[in-house]
Amino acid sequence: MTSRRILNSLGMLFAGVVLVSPAILFFLWMLSLSLKFEVDNAAYPPILIPERFAWKNYTGVFEANRFGLFFLNSLIVTGAATGLALLIGVPAGYGIARMRATKAAIVVLIARMTPGLSYLIPLFLLFQWLGLMGTLVPQIIAHLVITVPIVIWIMIGYFETTPLELEEAAVIDGANRWDVFRYVALPIAKPGITVAFILAVIFSWNNFVFGVVLAGRETRTLPVAVYNMLSFEQLSWGPLAAAALIVTLPVLVLTVIAQRQIVAGLTAGAVKGG
Amino acid sequence: MATIVEQQPGEIKEAAPVQGARPRSSYWPFVVPAVAVVGSVIVFPWVFTVWMSLHEWTVGGARRFAGLSNYARLVSDERFLTSVIHTFIYTFLAVVLPLILGTLAALVFNSRLPLRGILRGLFIMPMMATPVAIALVWTMMFHPQLGVLNYLLSLIGIGPQAWVFNPSTVIPSLVLVETWQWTPLVMLIVLGGLAAIPSEPYESAAIDGASAVQRFRYITLPMIAPFLMVAVIIRTIDALKSFDIIYAITQGGPGTASETINLYLYSVAFAYYDVGYGSAIAVVFFAIVIALSLLMLHLRQRTKWTDVQGGA
Fold first, then answer.
1. Which residues span the membrane (chain A) (predicted)?
2. Distance from CA of B306 to the nearest CA of A (A)
3. What is the pLDDT of residue B309?
4. Residue A35's domain spans which residues?
5. Residue B188 and residue A24: Cβ atoms within 8 Å?
6. B chain contacts of residue A116, beta-carbon cutoff 8 Å
7. Which of A12, A206, A223 sits opposite B112 (nearest CB)?
8. Are B128 and A252 spatial neighbours (Cβ–Cβ below 8 Å)?
9. What is the band of B15 on the pLDDT scale with cuts at 50, 70, 90?
10. How far apart, in whole angstroms, are the C-alpha atoms of residue A11 and residue A34?
11. Three-state DSSP class for B283?
12. Residue-level pLDDT at A85
């Protein structure tokens, strides 16, 4: 019986490894491409682990392609869009949950269904008219289209499940609405806010389509910068793979650290940006 | 059952004495900033897009009211009609494949799997990774001469493929990337459904001597049907809207062989700067997404209903 159970779980482990192998092999291959010299990247049969490592692929990305600047741009856009979304979306989620205004949630749902590009024509014209092109402001505002619905959606769900008794006790003790929110509801909602924060950061960081339309030479975010490298350096795979890894590494690290929150957030709201 | 109903938070709130002291409208100040932002960056663009679609308008050029002529133009625009067909083929494949693979993966992750946490963390990495970065690496892997995929095929005796460089294989190749990326989301949704199934039906099925296939067909599948429907709806919306991967790998090419509505919309609006016509495409595209979503939400209610019937 016990040996059969061990065999069973070994079988399941094998199935599990088979399932994750496309992901693991892909990222290993990405790492391998990024660390090889052009000679090794053009070799046939392909080489997985090279004899010498081309660390210059990584330094070159920052020196020749100004990835420092683009990294900073990404940080500012994602940081501002996520910060603003939390500032606006957490109270809104609270208000909607307490008013039980389920119809308001439908707007959020439709926003999620709308193709990102269809926001871009009016926003593009508006930013041009306002003379904001060439700054990071258009991208920050456009990213709100992704981050605000994510935050509101997750916070509605979270505040709906938090108990009302504490809030009511605070009201009886004479606290006003704002105090109740600030000192009672908000501390309880911290795990929900963490989930909303992580998902907003990831989907904003990954966003490509807003940048490709709204970013100029100096205001590119990382996804746009790495795409632009493709058109100019089509044949040098090493630097390209290194750049791609730099772009996505922060998100992958966050995924590993915050797996629990991400799974909770995605299965509760099943949201995706863009 | 009665106790569960009584414990719903709404019921308690109705009965609470403070309800009178805190009318629902008193929560408006919390919502006002969000209403302003959602109104200006989400609702305003919707309305403005519809208005623009009624005009002949190129960036830098004059704007002229054109009624429904942009929409009339769509009907006879062969490139648009082809892009609609491409979108439907792409969406169908990019829903069905992740659905099947994701369900299988959920069954594995729902069992007593050693190292489950670590394996699940690795499994969801593709969907969290930056799509453009992923797309670049896939482009290298698809390379007919130097790509690793053709090498892997040669190991099992299959000749080299042109992947995204051949009009007849480009859409399936892109779907391969999309499936690789989004199977984990289906897995997570179905896993949520599997976790909610009680063990009693399986126990009585075991007593009745039901086989594993029968247990899956007659217990698991009906129980997770509503979750599968949610996965189908979400996948459909996302596949219809897919942009990053297609744009980064093929830009709709070769020729227009992988040009979906979204890609065509991008070209019209931001390569030709024909914002009037682009807006008309955006409106029709939006209508297609909403119509398909509503259709499936309707079907979802039907599945729930038949579930109750089947269970009774």
1. 12-31, 67-92, 104-130, 136-159, 235-257
2. 24
3. 38
4. 18-54
5. no
6. 241, 243
7. A12
8. yes
9. very low
10. 34
11. helix
12. 97
Q: Quick one: A65 and A46 in the same domain?
A: no
A1 within a domain of the structure (yes/no): no
Give Cβ neighbours of residue B222 (< 8 Å, ≥ 6 apart). B307, B310, B311
**Residue A269: which pLDDT band, with cuts at 50, 70 and 90?**
low
* Count of domains forming chain A: 2
> Looking at the predicted structure, is the pLDDT value of residue B62 above 90?
no
Alpha helices in A162-236 (DSSP H): 165-172, 177-179, 186-188, 190-206, 209-214, 222-232
- Pick from A119, A116, A136, A148: nearest CA to A74: A136
Same domain as A65, residue A129? yes
CB B280 within 8 A of CB B53: yes
B14 vs B21: CA distance, rounded Å = 12
Q: Do A223 and B133 touch (CB under 8 A)?
A: yes
CA distance A270 to B188: 9
Burial of B48 (0-12, 13-18, 19+ CB in 10 A): middle
Spatial CB neighbours of A189, under 8 Å, sequence gap ≥ 6: A90, A94, A155, A158, A159, A162
Mean pLDDT on A139-145:
95
Cα–Cα distances in angstroms (integers) from residue A252 to residues A55, A249, B130, B133, B211, in the given order: 21, 5, 9, 12, 40
Q: Are residue A44 and residue A119 in the same domain, yes or no?
A: no
Indicate whether A95 belongs to any domain: yes
Which positions in chain B touch A107 (Cβ < 8 Å)?
A: 38, 42-43
pLDDT value for B64? 85
Pairwise CA distance, residues B91 & B241, whole Å: 9
In angstroms, the separation between the Cα of residue A188 and the nearest Cα of chain B is 16
- Contact assignment for A115 to B285 by CB distance below 8 Å: yes
**Looking at the domain that runs over B69-307, which CATH code has it been given?**
1.10.3720.10
Query: Residue B139: is its pLDDT beyond 90?
Result: yes
Whether residue A111 sits in one domain with residue A46: no
Query: Of the candidates A22, A152, A223, which has its C-beta nearest B130's C-beta?
Result: A223
User: Which chain A residue lies closest to B12 (C-alpha atoms)?
Assistant: A164
Q: Compare all CA atoms of chain A with the CA of B122 and give the residue at the minimum distance.
A: A20
- Within the 71-130 window of chain B, which residues sit less than 8 Å (CB to CB) from chain A? 105, 108-109, 111-117, 119-126, 128-130
Nearest chain A residue (CA) to B130: A206
Residues of chain A neighbouring B130 (CB-CB closer than 8 A): 205-206, 208, 222-223, 244, 247-248, 251
The Cβ of residue B2 has, within 10 Å, a number of other Cβ atoms equal to: 6
**Interaxial angle between packed helices B275-311 and B78-110, expressed in degrees from 0 to 180 and rounded to the nearest 10:** 40
| Global ipTM | 0.90
